[in-house]
Amino acid sequence: MSTRIDSYALSDVGLQRDNNEDAYEAVQEAALYIVADGMGGHASGHVASQMAVKSIREYVTVRAQTPDHAFTFPVPGRYGPPERLLSNAIQWANERLFIESMKEREYEGMGTTVVCAMDFKNVMVMGHVGDSRIYRYRHGKFEQITRDHSLLNHYIDQGKITSKEEIDSFANGNVIVRALGLKDYVDPEITVIGKEPDDYYLLCTDGLTDLVDDWIIANVLDGNGEHLEQACDALVRLANEAGGKDNCTVMILHVVADLSSSSAPETDDLDEPSEPTPTSVKAMDDADISDSDPAVALDETESSAEDEEPWEQDEVTPINIPAMESEDL
Fold first, then answer.
1. Domain count within the chain
2. Residue 315 domain-assigned?
3. In 10 A of CB 131, how many CB atoms?
4. Predicted structure pTM score
């Protein structure tokens, strides 16, 4: 069945910050959706998130469409074309940020998280770095698709934290171990999942998830799913009512059965993309990003594009969080 993506996004500075360092964009002609949460203080966090969004969009809609384009960043050999594309786009954005932070003293130490979703045929291809998240709401189940690149999860993976009590009392829950711009190389995590009509995907920054419980978010989507603007407004309002300690950005994607037209545009068919119209504050101008610097060399532990095997969809097992029933509230 042919489907299309309806989307809406909203960003708010919150109640305790002077500047909004989040950025987002819905690049409709590429079926690409991006949310970023900048860090670095002063103006650099805003610059980092905007630059990341613009760079990812530019790579997917312009650079990857040139006849002589080749994927130059390392990816696992199991990745297929859409995964290679999104991973290379994120890595190219990381390189842009890192180079800019080396050139400008005021941008030193800037970085950003990022989450991306790309509609491709019968699947959603998702990439993330940091602790911004993507959730899926399907048939009453609210599922976290991404896993935070946090210090807490790093310690859990190493076996340094093993009990629920240690997790609940961990003092550095907001510290992340992976972000764009901090090093000359980053390893994006790419996930591919099948999509169905009436799926909802939520891309958001931690300004929402640090303050609003998952079951509350699920009930907002359940009650406002047909009205994406109302759902986004409700989520941002809930974050502010819970203290609004950080910027909060939410983007909701709704997979809709489209009986009147063909499926969403596929990346391979975007031969002559037009200039996208951002749904957020204008991204950085071309003059603000250097294009002349070489790509990062291939990591010896990773496979090059030439060594890769044919792509097969690799379905993930998300974290299931059932929506609360009315009698539970």
1. 1
2. no
3. 27
4. 0.79
